[in-house]
Amino acid sequence: MFKAIQIEKTDDGQTVSLKELDENSLPEGDVTIDVAYSTLNFKDGLAITGSSPVVRTWPMVPGIDLAGTVRDSSHGDYKAGDKVVLNGWGVGETHWGGLSQVARLKGDWLVPLPRAFSEKQAMAIGTAGYTAALCVDALIDAGIAPDQGPVLVTGATGGVGSVAIALLKAAGFQVHALTGKTQEAEYLKKLGADDIVDRATMSEKGKPLQKEIWAGVVDTAGSYTLANACAQTKYGGAVASCGLAQGFDLPVTVMPFILRGVRLLGVDSVMAPKERRLKAWDRLGRDLDTSKLEAIGQEIGLADAIDAAGKFMSGDVKGRYIVDVNA
Q1: CATH number at residue 147
Q2: Which DSSP symbol is given to 113?
Q3: Which of 23, 67, 137, 302 is most buried, with most CB under 10 Å away?
Q4: What is the mean pLDDT of residues 283-288?
Q5: Domain residue limits at 296
Q6: Is 49 in contact with 80 (CB distance < 8 Å)?
């Protein structure tokens, strides 16, 4: 038997509870993992609160992230005792996820736990931090370099934004942090932000072309924030888009793209191929100062995750929730 958060469908919507489940109920997979830590992401908040139809198979154990130890494996890349990390692949949506003491998954979805991190530290990073690394890789692969000018990070106090700031600073960039929580300026500057930009300056409709400011942008917001970021990006610059915290619409014109050659780079973390995942985790292991993870993450127990999901969706969260599934 093991404990897990489970979402069940009802005639009135859904119920969410902490349950004790039999291991015979675990889904199919070729690797069984004793989970040490999981975490809460935006998608987990949507699933647990029922704010959006994220869950597609019922009942569902949410949690798109986990870190733990392989108990049993028939997959050629993993053996009992190996430390592994899971991010995405539809886990927590169509396949039971990480907010559980035990998980059974496909080995092809896993990556080895980087030696630089403990299981807890890996979940302080989680999908949010791994996505941030994908965004930084996308900008650098597009030729964006520190000598071209400052880089903007939107949604800066969130999980993606927090890690993106730290990684960009480690890569030598001047980093400007866009946030509606200007009272968190000290937190953002400890992560590496050189300047704080008030979210209100970019959250409403702006001109199609604006003053050229940013060599690159990591955007987690979408909507008007992303549109204004594109309009403020320098000639030949690039914008890595990975989120929709403000909205999934994009009220932008073609002007930044056809007059300044701005590139809009879509960044997907869920189905990213393994080589891209390994590259992102390599960057995290090399460039992320683990001391900064103490500021980014706050630890909670499995039983606390349901209430925490509600706080997450209300925006009353700084950094990351790390879930000790055995606490």
Answers
A1: 3.40.50.720
A2: P
A3: 67
A4: 96
A5: 2-116+292-324
A6: no
